[in-house]
Give the backbone structure.
Amino acid sequence: MTLSRAQAVKALLSHTLRTEFRKAHGWIGLALFSLASAYAAYRAVGAHPEAATWNALIWVVLMFSAFNALARPLADDVAAVRRYHMHLIDPRDYFLARMLYHGVLLSALSLIIQLAFSLFLGTEHLEGMRSAWMALGMQTTAWAMAGTITLLGALGARAGAGFGLTAVLGLPLIIPILLLSARLGDAIMSGLGAAEKAESLLFLGTFGGGAAAMGYILFPYLWRE
Amino acid sequence: MKERIALGVAGVLLLYVLGMIALVPLGPGLIALEPVSGSVSPLRYEVVGLGTHFAGQTHQARVFAGRPGEVWEWRVIEARNDARLVVEAVWPEKLKTKSLDLFVYHPTDGTLLLENALHVGHVPIDDAAAYPPLASPVPAGDNLGFHFPFQPQIFESIRNLMLHVPMWFAMFFLSGLGFFASVRQLGSARLLPADGEAHSASSVALFFGILGLLTGSIWARFTWGTWWVDDPQLNGALVTVLVYGGYHVLRASLDEPMLRARLSSVYNLFAFVILIVLLLILPRFSESLHPGKGGNPGFNTYDLDSALRWVFYPAVVGWSLLGWLLYRIHFRYHRLRQRLEMSESHPSTALNPPTGTPWR
């Protein structure tokens, strides 16, 4: 039986989601890490920080949470499972599924972080629509990070070097995303017009999309023996 | 043989470039316009120049205020020395703008410009204001030898243009070589010499990137007053250097040659595309202090006919050739060392290497 690309990606995504969520310590650990980071930020600067502080902290917390999530090898990153996959699956389908999984994961984490920040550090800088813009910015950032780091996470897992290597390879690429996001957050909090915000969102989307396209092209080469 | 030619050409070019950097004088320019204390009406000013020749042929010097294309003449009184010219202000009845540029013509220095030299409060503003016509046309040209152009803020540090910018050209050239070597390696299931080429090219590219950051940082200290600024171009440059550093960490963490070749090739292709995006595309869409980006003019805009090109282009070629040479030396050194290690562990294969091993 041959599957269409969409069916294959869907099956792989649901498989990855199920295997990852079965390992409860994995995702609970990630959620706790995000919450604990947000709480640490709250304890460090108090309940009502300046807009600039609020903005800087939320992106730094998102960055560390994203690293924690993306640099961790998946349950399937075992040589035996990979060899089994290599005979059955188109590597590009696998890449798409892996990226979508990371996107879903980071999207959930950024939601948790935004809620935690709103709860602990207050929402006086994000009244009304600004909160929605911020959520949109966090989600775009989460997906851009997923698009950028998925290939590097797979590369780190393939090298067998684990968390440290992926962090070293991925951190330089996260910096430009973080700079764009911080600029976006600044634009949202200082009430700039939609054009400035849309421009930052567009840059984030282009950067993440371009990196994801490169990953899609290059990933099959990681799968050869 | 190719290396010898490259060494010769790079040597000649870089000697020429370094010689020009050391010897070519900086052209004259204006620094400030200072009121002479004690003078009230008519108000006298001192024009402060750098590298100017006001003391000679002072009677032929002329001073104008206004905007480019619409100026009227002031009176030259005397030259205190080569760098200080005393002038007397002349005001029309109405002005088009409050902020005025100052132009100084001198037969040796040509026409010099001081932008926004003074701000006038006491003359009414009128769009239809007419300025007194010039008594005679201003001669064009100067009597200076070959010199580098005077730039406000930059002054003598303009010589760094021949060092800082070619570092990035050389880095691009070498990372491009590494990119194509990685493409060749990825296209093959065997270990090719291309893997070693990609490694060497990326190492030298990283070296030039670090030099580019250092020369840029020194330049920033002189012109912007700080070693580092938060700027899209600078962030992109730093990220690029970090990405190439990551390439070497990745290689160091892998022992198996074939896997190392494949994974580092994948990373190298990824890194190169990111480099293009970060250094060449994104900064163009952002505001930047750095010349050539976001509405901030590059050197070309104001120096089309300047002496800089006579040194800058040879510098780009010379530094890139030197980079290529370093890359060849690095590549051959590592090939020899591998061969030596092989011959120590497997003496029989040293002279007759099996196919698929990393040498030609």
In short: The beta strands of chain B are 29-35, 44-50, 62-67, 70-81, 84-88, 99-106, 110-119. Chain B touches chain A through 29 residues (CB under 8 Å). Residues 308-345 of chain B form the longest helix (38 residues). The two ends of chain B are 17 Å apart (CA to CA).
